[in-house]
Amino acid sequence: MLDDADRSDEEDVRLATAPFQADFPYEREDEAQVTRREFCNFLGLTSAALFLGAGGFAAKAALDARRSESHVAARIGGAELLAPNSSLNFNYPTERDSAILVRTADGAYHAYGQKCTHLSCPVYYSRDQQRLECPCHEGAFDAASGKVLYGPPPRPLDEIEIEIREGEVWAVGRNLARG
Ligand code: FES
After folding, report:
1. Ligand 1 within 6 A of 122 CB?
2. Does residue 73 contact residue 171 with C-beta atoms inside 8 Å?
3. What's the distance, CA 90 to chain centroid?
4. Is residue 153 within 6 Å of ligand 1 at its C-beta?
5. Ligand 1 atom closest to Cα of 117?
6. Cβ atoms of residues 100 and 87 within 8 Å
7. DSSP state, 115?
């Protein structure tokens, strides 16, 4: 309930704001409609932005997943003498890049960068388990694909592309695995 003093304050305010209300009329109904329309527009734009953003990330991930590098081919010395179910270390594509060549029990050759994709410890080939293992945090990779078998590594090993040229094993490129 308004007493005289309150009523007088309200009237003072109404009187003071009356000219502004005449100059800038405002209907609650209109405001609600605009707000709903704006909200719908906002939702539409936000959805479109999210859709485009997700599409961009997916496209980038797909490109990154098969990013390959060309390097000068290099013969892997001694590879042709490697017995099945064993490995040897070499460097590729530069002397600073340690790599590992694995000859799996079926006689096929596979080569990978030796850095674990978790925190870069060097992996080794376990003949008993027939897989590549990382000693630092017990990660393991499939010897034939480089894919993570278990442990903390977030992605497969980088793959070194190899070719057999007249009985010799050559490293001819590198595929940087992502994701
Ligand atoms: S560095 Fe290989 S599992 Fe952590």
Report:
1. no
2. yes
3. 28
4. yes
5. 2
6. yes
7. B
Provide the token pair at 41.
């527009």
The terminus-to-terminus CA distance of the chain in angstroms comes to 69
pLDDT per residue rounded down to tens, the chain (179 residues): 445 554 544 455 445 545 545 555 545 455 455 556 665 465 565 565 545 555 554 555 555 555 788 899 999 999 999 999 999 999 999 999 999 999 999 999 999 999 999 999 999 999 999 999 999 999 999 999 999 999 999 999 999 999 999 999 999 999 997 65
**Residue of minimum CA distance from atom 1 in ligand 1:** 119
Which residue's entry shows tokens 């002397």?
A: 95
Instruction: Determine which helix (DSSP H) or strand (DSSP E) holds 89, and give its type and residue range.
Output: strand 86-91
* Integer Cα distance of 12 and 145 in angstroms: 82
Nearest to 174, CA basis, from 143, 146, 133, 135: 146
Q: Are 108 and 144 in contact (CB under 8 A)?
A: yes
Choose among 86, 107, 93: nearest CA to 164: 107
